[in-house]
Specification:
mainly alpha; 19 helices; 2 domains; globular
Length: 474
Amino acid sequence: MSFKNKIVKGISWSAAERFLNQFFQIGMTIILARILSPSDFGIIAIVLVFTSISQALIDSGLSNALIQKSRRDQTDLSTVFIFNIIFGLLIYVLIFSLAPWLAKLFNVPELESLLRILGLSPFIQGLSIIQITILTIKVDFKVIAKASVTSILISSVIALYLAFLGAGFWAIATQLLLHNTINTILLWIFVNWKPSLVFSWRSFKGLFSFGWKLLAAGQLHSIYVNSYNLVIGLRNSSADIGYFNQSSTISRFPSIGFMAIISRAVFPIQCELQDDKIKLFDSFKNYLQLSHFLIFPLMLAMAALSEPFISLVLTDKWLPMKDYFSTLCIAYCLTPIMVTNNQMLLVNGRSDLFLIAEIIKKIFGSIILLCTFSYGIKVICIGFVIYNIFDSALAIYYSRKTTGAGYTIQIKWIYKSTISAILMLLAIIFSTSLVNGDLLKIFIGTIFGISTYLCFCHIFKTKLLGKLFPFGNV
């Protein structure tokens, strides 16, 4: 199969899996938000801080090291699998032991039992890392889609049933745990791979020399992102955490979700193009242009329509989150720049630069969080926008060392769609100010927004739709 057909097929199945997964997940979030209280989501958000950090630790960056390695064998795979089991168990023991202390720290007694149960989730998910890695290397996202969609459907039905019975936050906890458990079981059934009882220190050292930098970078990012919930949780009620967490979850969905769809398929293909710099550069350029062309206007539109969207979809009890939501949508406009540039560092094997950039960004981000947390959640969200601007600038600075595409070049790639999107934002704000009613505002804003954006893209001759696939001549 040619690179062109391979990447189109990979992106198609990756898109299907991610879209269906994210669609059902966000649908579940919305339905549960209408049934449960902000406090229920706030309690779960605190638990997810520690399970997210645990999951990042268990992965250890070794899966990306396996993908990046041109020649991998059964010893490599088994070594990573055994490491994940041992390390995962150690992390669960730590969570189990700290659960009572954390429950007292946040003054939420329910945290003790929740942490001890949901703490198993990262370990269970870690059991399927090798299967997912194998399928990713093969660009076979059809199997991943089957397992993921099946598991989320089953777990969601059970969670909804528990929510209607009045289970509260336990409905969310059940859904999270069941999803990971069923998904892991299905991947073991679908993927024809069994571990050998072999652990090679030589293999581990080779993979870890690349992966430890990703582990450190991943942990810095995970701790930084989750520190928002921690800081808000220590100074505010569980309802406030719920408002912020829902704002973050829903605003991340379009940008992070879309980039995950594309990057997961593009990354292994780009790794195969490491020796063909012209094709790799062309792939990078189109990847950035197209993702920015789609995501930047979408996030601005969501920011402009935040109030009618929240009122209509989540109900008025969630309206206190509208300012948080709109501000975070603006922050996530820049996701394509960050993801595409960071990925080029990994494709070219420069995990050292990736780690250096992550350290600098997280120091800067931590300073912003420390300066804003005492002024309330709104100011914290504004600080997150500033962090994302800095993140994007630094990502470009380091990636140009491997791509040669600096600020001027990348701005030329995306400035037309950026201007078109800003004019679209103004059109949405103006058009929605003329009508009343949440549904009508969303309808009018969407029609005016899309029309304005496409009109100015045509005026500026932004001809990207015809190049939506296959990301250059790869």
